[in-house]
Amino acid sequence: MKKKILSIILAAGMGAMLLAGCGSSDSTSSENENISDEGTSESDDSETAEVSDEAEVTLRIAAQPYPLYSNIWVAYELGYLEEELAAVGADFTWTEFQSGPLVNEAVAAGEADLGYMADLPAIIAKSSGQEIEIVSNVAYGEKGLAVLVTPDSDITSVADLKGKKVAYATGSYAQHLLALLLDQEGLTLDDVESINLGAGDQPTALTTGEVDAIVIWEQYISKLTSEGTAVVLADGTGIKRGNMVTYAVSSYAEENPEVIEAYIRALDRADEYIESNPEDAAAAIADDFGVETDLMELILDNFTFTTELTQDDIDEIEKVKDFSLESDIISNDVDIDSFINTEYLEAIE
After folding, report:
1. What is the rounded distance in angstroms from the CA atom of residue 29 to the CA atom of residue 201?
2. What is the pLDDT along the chain (349 residues), one digit of tens a residue?
3. How far apart are CA 320 and CA 241, in angstroms?
């Protein structure tokens, strides 16, 4: 059902949101590549769905290998994506990236039609001028993002972070959580020494003492705490909803609404499967995230998986946008009402 295909993605660096002069992907002759936190390309054994010669259109999905997006991975592993897209005469390619900013780069370079990520990097992409629109929710979960320190750390409260080295991926939703937590203590990001590190590099930096704290998401939170390597100093409970969303290139969505709707239907099936069969769902995707099935079950409990975009979701995304403007993370305002397009969700109700 699956075979390796070529996906050549140019990723320049964490800070760049828009790239020009990039080559297109050839989906016929070589290996899929995994794009690292630092923006460099690392060949691996990840696979994509077979591209059918009979398909009328292909959906190029920029994926991220984190449990924050477990429903998308269930839809991928159980064949829901393939089935729903085939039903409308489409197929898909699947290329993995290690952060939302890197997905943004691939989309900006014309190498992907659809990506999923946390709220902040999606807003950054839109503000930078990318012609994209949010077409569905993916999940939300206050405990899916946290500040971690070592068990023997002298940091026992968020206030203790003042003057400390704190690692997080700049432009990720981890940055927003840290800013919110610091604000509660009368502090700002200027009061800590921010270290820009991808999620994959943060655990080592913490355990070796290169940094004093990290702001990271699942699967790392559960892995590090279950191993006794780290403890949670604070998470998003009561302060950050933690929305994950899917955005699509506007021109692609307008030309292929049935494909976007098929994608959403696949996620809806996965949402139902996770709710009714959590153990089987965990078993289906645990290997994708390098965790045991039992731990994967616990991780799933930290999230609500749904494609629905409620007013609470929209209000939360608006708050993140306001924070981004106030913090000079973005320089151009984003009209959230036009950025979020619910017509594809409404079409399949």
Report:
1. 32
2. 333 333 333 333 333 333 333 333 333 222 333 433 333 333 333 444 445 567 799 999 999 999 999 999 999 999 999 999 999 999 999 999 988 889 999 999 999 999 999 999 999 999 999 999 999 999 999 999 999 999 999 999 999 999 999 999 988 899 999 999 999 999 999 999 999 998 999 999 999 999 999 999 999 999 999 999 999 999 999 999 999 999 999 999 999 999 999 999 999 999 999 999 999 999 999 999 999 999 999 999 999 999 999 999 999 999 999 999 998 899 999 999 999 999 999 999 7
3. 10
**Dihedral, CA atoms, 86, 88, 90, 95, nearest 10 degrees?**
-80
Whole-number Å distance between alpha carbons of 155 and 188: 17
Longest distance between any two alpha carbons in the chain, whole Å: 61
* Residue listed under structure tokens 């200027």: 190
216: nearest Cα among 177, 158, 159, 164: 177
- Rg (C-alpha) for the chain, rounded Å, is 19
Our measurement of the distance from residue 211's CA atom to the centroid of its chain's CA atoms, rounded to an integer in Å, reads: 24
Provide the token pair at 130. Answer: 């990318």
Cα–Cα distances in angstroms (integers) from residue 178 to residues 190, 230, 319, in the given order: 11, 17, 15
